[in-house]
Amino acid sequence: MEIKEVHNFNIYEESEFINIQNQLKKKISLKNTFSKNSIKLVAGVDLAYWEKENKQYGTCCIVVIDYNTKQVVEKVNSVGEIKVPYIPGFLAFRELPLVTEALKKLVVEPDIFIFDGNGYLHFNHMGIATHASFFLNKPTIGVAKSYLRVNEADFQMPQNEEGSFTDIIINGEVYGRVLRTREDVKPIFISCGNYIDLETSTEIVLNLINNESRLPIPVRLADLETHISRSALS
């Protein structure tokens, strides 16, 4: 798969991170750039980390499934040393080098990418799902298992019913959504990445839920693959 080189990754200063985010967020579009009937392939993206000999390493795994049959179409992964330390709000700079290396190995071209992480639900609207969209030039969705608090704003728990949700509204703006994908399980936190609206993001995520997890199938499978890869390498 062809990846657009939006910026290089030889960046280690927080001020540079902010400058890049500020430039890219001007180009965010929370509108669908596709027809829902055209969705055929959906990819899940996840990463895992470990330490070895005082160095930190990571693996990115991408699993592509058929949107209608839910069958796996392709799996790829990348492995490498992590050079950027963890700084809240700037996860993309830490993870994107491995993400882009894995993406380059894809033979098929997914229509939608779902990231284990946030998108628009971010203090600068530039979570990993949004940031990655500029390299992919594809619609992206962020799905997080835990809540990233922005400006000390809390969220309202949705009802205990499959498909129920509450919107995360901060200073009058909708940042994301708390979505109950299954009854009697914890909700997930979804947000637009880019080139897609929140209603469509919700519809796609719910269509990819089965009885095995509260997470959409491709993200859950990518998560499982990261654990396999990490166990083999760490």
From TrEMBL:
Localization per record: Cytoplasm
Keyword DNA repair included in the entry's annotation: yes
Catalytic activity annotation: Endonucleolytic cleavage at apurinic or apyrimidinic sites to products with a 5'-phosphate
Residues that bind Mg(2+): D46, D116
Domain of life (superkingdom): Bacteria
Obligatory cofactor(s): Mg(2+)
Enzyme Commission number: 3.1.21.7
Residues under site feature: Interaction with target DNA: Y86
Keyword terms, alphabetized: Cytoplasm, DNA damage, DNA repair, Endonuclease, Hydrolase, Magnesium, Metal-binding, Nuclease
GO molecular function: deoxyribonuclease V activity; magnesium ion binding; RNA endonuclease activity producing 5'-phosphomonoesters, hydrolytic mechanism; single-stranded RNA binding
One GO biological process term: DNA repair
Similarity comment: family membership: Belongs to the endonuclease V family.
Function summary: DNA repair enzyme involved in the repair of deaminated bases. Selectively cleaves double-stranded DNA at the second phosphodiester bond 3' to a deoxyinosine leaving behind the intact lesion on the nicked DNA.
Protein name, UniProt field: Endonuclease V
Organism annotation: Clostridium cellulovorans (strain ATCC 35296 / DSM 3052 / OCM 3 / 743B)
Phylogenetic classification of the source organism: Bacteria, Bacillati, Bacillota, Clostridia, Eubacteriales
Gene name for this UniProt entry: nfi
